[in-house]
Every structure is written in C-alpha cells, then in structure tokens.
Amino acid sequence: ILTHLRSFEMEVNRFYTNHVMMVEPTKFFFNTETACDNEFMHNVEEDNEAIANKAIQEHRDLRAKIEEAGITVTKYEQMADDLPDSLFPNNWFSTHKYPGNIDNRLVCVYPMKAPTRQREVNPKIIEDFSDPESHTIDLTGFCEKGQVLEGTGALIFDPVNLKVYANISQRCEKDVLDHFLEQFNSKCQEPFRSVVFSSCTSSGTPIYHTNVMFSVLSEHIVVCLESIPDEEERKKVVEEITSSELNKYPKKLLEISLEEVNNMCGNIICVLNKDQEPCVIMATTAYNGFKPENLEELKAHYKIIHSDVSTIEKIGGGS
Fold first, then answer.
1. Structural contact between residues 101 and 190, judged by C-beta atoms closer than 8 angstroms
2. Fewer CB within 10 Å, N or C, the chain?
3. Residue 51 carries which DSSP code?
4. Mean per-residue pLDDT, 118-122
5. Are 71 and 271 in contact (CB under 8 A)?
6. Residues 6+ apart with CB under 8 A from 93
7. Which residues pair with 156 in a beta bridge?
8. Can you give the pLDDT at residue 270?
9. Exposed, middle or buried by CB within 10 Å (0-12, 13-18, 19+), for 28?
C-alpha cells in the first residue's frame, strides 16, 4: 500500500510546479473597467496612495511567506501606474510543461476583456519564460474581435486527467476556448478536453472567473456545486471529478459553499516546495473562511501557506 501511495504521489506531483511568478504592484486602485462583471470588487473611500501602499505590503508579505516555505519566486514589477490589475498576471499568461505530454515549455498569452488589462502583456516576461525549445500560443488577436479568454482565471487545468474545466462567462467565451484547445492540443502528445458549465454568485450574478469557485489540487478538486444552477451540469461536473472511468487518477471532491466562495476559498493554488511536498497557497480570508471540516481535510494532505491580502481582495476582487 505504501509503495502504491508513493507511486501515486510521484506520478501526480510531477505535474505541479515549485516555481511561481509574481508581479508586484506599484499603483493599485479600483478599476472601473473590470468592476462591471466582477461582483467581488468593492470601491472604498480611501486615498489611492494609501490603498497602493497597503497592497504593495500585502504582496511582499505573501511573497516572503511563499519563499519561506521553500518555493522559488520570480518577481517582476507593474509596467505602468495605470495598470492596477497587473498583480494578477495569470489572467494573461500561463506556462505548461507536463513530462511525457508537453516536454518543451508551452507559453500561452490570452486575450483580456478590459483595455487596461490588455495592456498588461509584458514582452519581458514572455521572453524570460521562453527558450529555443519552447512554443508559444498567442491569442491576443482575439482582442480586436472583442473576444475573451482570461487565462487560468477562466481555465482550470487538470494535467493528470487531461482536462480543462471552464465556467463560461464574459471572461471565458466558448469559441475562443475551443480555438485555444485546438492549438494547445497540437503541442500535446495526449490531448486535453474541456468540461464546461455556468455558475452564479449567491445574488444570481454570473461568476466572472472559474478560479473563484473551482481549484484543482494534487489530490482534491475544490468546487462550489451550489453555484452551478443547472442540475445536469452539476451532475456532469461531479462525474468528471470522481469517475474512475473518466479519470486516470480520480480526485476527491471537496465541496465548498457559496459563503466559502465569498471568502475566496475557491481561489487557491497547489504548488510544490523544495522537498517536493504539496503546498496550498491561499488568502488568510480563505483560511479563516473554510468550514472547519474542509480546512482539516486540506491540512491533512497539504502544507498550508496563507497571508493577509484583504486590500487586494476587497478592491481587486481576486484573480
């Protein structure tokens, strides 16, 4: 049994990174362009400079905790002061290297909805994470057509089971997703397939990003089934997560509530530390907002890294 468990861990963990990239804010403020379909954003009566200073310190504290946990961080800075959402680079940029499937790094650049966010694309970051053997998928041409697919905010990859989960919204258009998947699969030895659904907040507003209510960890998938109003879609999502027929390594479903979603409990990521141990990074709001049984389940399987990013959450609404 122990040998089998160790084999499982080694097989699954090789798909997770021990290196993260962060963009430190220089100016951070409420972005009216992105607030129109992000219910998690809140404008506050506070001086923008004070807000920015708080956000910068929160970002630095988070980075320090990640590094203290034995995870490598590459840091960049916001390119221009009028790009307040630059600290969420995962929406316009992702990299993929899955041994035995995508052996050379694949760099993906995504089309953003808001004009300010379209301007976040940083050629320096793309260059630094590319090499002579890597490939690039650049979807930014869709911006001219007004079409959108906002990176790993919209797309949740399960590289072990060859799936991409996606909540269809104004930030995740099915046509662009299909085009992306065709391009993505052209670089894979084994193709991925999409699992799509629609989700809503407690007020009935469509959820803007999938990663607000859905996260793939090494052993679990965290999902708010309550946010998926269509019963057939809910059943499909559960089956896609848990079925041994649909997965090489079925995940354990960790269900969170809409209240937990409001506390950013869905917006968590799994990485490895220098000892190849799985860690889950989350906000302190999420850490305090999980139901006790859900937090205990996570603690039993992962090292938890949490930090107070309440200013960033409240004004930016999460990534």
1. yes
2. N
3. H
4. 96
5. yes
6. 107, 108, 109, 110, 121, 122, 125, 126, 151
7. 165
8. 98
9. buried
Task: Tell how strand 303-307 and strand 135-138 pair up.
Answer: unpaired
Tokens 């060859």 — which residue? 162
DSSP code string of 97-110: EETTTEEEEEEEE-
Give the residue with greater pLDDT, 316 vs 105: 105
DSSP H or E stretch at residue 197: strand 193-197
Q: Which residues contact 137 (CB under 8 A, 6 or more apart)?
A: 106, 107, 108, 109, 180, 183, 184, 187
The two tokens of residue 289 are 């907002």
Contact 300, 276 (CB under 8 A): no
Q: Fill in the amino acid letter for 267.
A: N
Mean pLDDT for the chain overall: 91
**Which DSSP symbol is given to 132?**
T
Taking the C-alpha atoms of residue 246 and residue 150, their distance in angstroms, rounded to an integer, is 26
CB atoms within 10 A of CB 306: 17
Mean pLDDT of 65-94: 95
User: If pLDDT is split at 50, 70 and 90, which confidence band does 209 have?
Assistant: very high
Query: Strand 278-283 and strand 269-272: pairing?
Result: antiparallel
Three-state secondary-structure class, residue 92:
coil
Q: Is the pLDDT of residue 51 over 90?
A: no
Q: Is 20 helix (H, G, I), strand (E, B) or coil?
A: strand
For residue 157 the two structure tokens come to 């990859």
Q: CA of 266: how far to CAs of 41, 125, 213, 254, in Å?
A: 16, 27, 4, 10
In which band, very low, low, confident or very high, does the pLDDT at 250 lie, cut at 50, 70 and 90? Answer: very high
